[in-house]
Write a structure and sequence with these properties.
It is built from twelve helices and twelve strands. By secondary structure, it is of the alpha/beta class. Helix 2 packs across helix 4, helix 6 packs across helix 9 and helix 9 packs parallel to helix 10. The chain is globular, with a radius of gyration of 19 Å.
Amino acid sequence: MSSVVPLPFRADHIGSFLRPDYLIKAREAHAKYCIGAAELRQIEDRAIAEIVQMQRDVGLKAITDGEFRRTYFHVDFLRQLGGVASEEPRTITREDGSLELAPPVIKVMDKVRHIKNIQLADFEYLQRQTLALGDATLMPKVTLPSPTMLHFRGGRAGISQQAYPELEPEFYEDVAKAYGAELQSLADAGCRYVQMDDTNLAYLCDEKMRAAARRRGDDPNELPYRYADFINRVVAYKPQGMTLGIHLCRGNFRSTYAAAGNYEPVAEALLAKMQLDAFFLEYDDERSGDFRPLRYLPKGKQVVLGLITSKFGQMESKDDIKRRIDEAARYAPLEQLCLSPQCGFSSTVHGNNIAFDEQRRKLELVVEIAEEVWGAA
């Protein structure tokens, strides 16, 4: 499968979508042992077929399964790697009454290894649904959590001293090999487009998060470069012909966020050092800072500007978005820029505080603006 448009697409998206009520109820029934795994999967299949059709109808070319088979964008994948264990995430209430997703405790208990193909069956179903639409320009896209999430949350304390007396190079190389095996299994099935979701680099833009890293014994100025090397180990195993991108997420639980701050503290490590093909950056409000960090973008790489919020239903002004694209183009060539919502609409099963029709209109707006700015979505 190939696309006449280089990846990422001018109008792209992060991956997750609001779950329909019947799917949420089915997952709840499965958790209570009222329905089995096979019945739940059939219901997921139906919901995915519907969301694939919706993406095609609004004019998107990158097609995901909405992450409909996951409860959390990261935990559901990471805990299926050999040597990794995770508790369930917890919801806590902030002082203002809003809810926040407490970071799950993800621990490396043994040598990290790829013990099974985690996303393969899900991709194969997505690919069948995409092919069934009869449009050769559509590209099924797989989203994975970033490997850095196995380090940042717990630091050295979260990784077994017995399994890894020293992190460098064994820990980073084992994780990279595990990801490489997963990417190869997807490539062998025809997958050409993968996006990794990373909260950690975005968190290192926030002084509160940087202070927390210091308390764990990590240097927040050194970590971005260490993570760049970490990601590049994964890139070394990337199958030929696959586009591999990364999305920096600042938190996306029920329309809340966890981090703020200009990208400057991580920009050089992210854009100039990581040997990835594309960078999805959140730029939907002032907490992301200005576009000056884009000056580090090398030739041949793409930045997808997340200018349209996925957190709230109020529609952005088309003229305002075009003006912001022009501002970004002062620091990176317009031909190296694309457009997307700032994050997914439902990074966890709970979903953001936005209606289904608002979600659709946001995506239509992305496509319309991309066509007007670049001549193609």
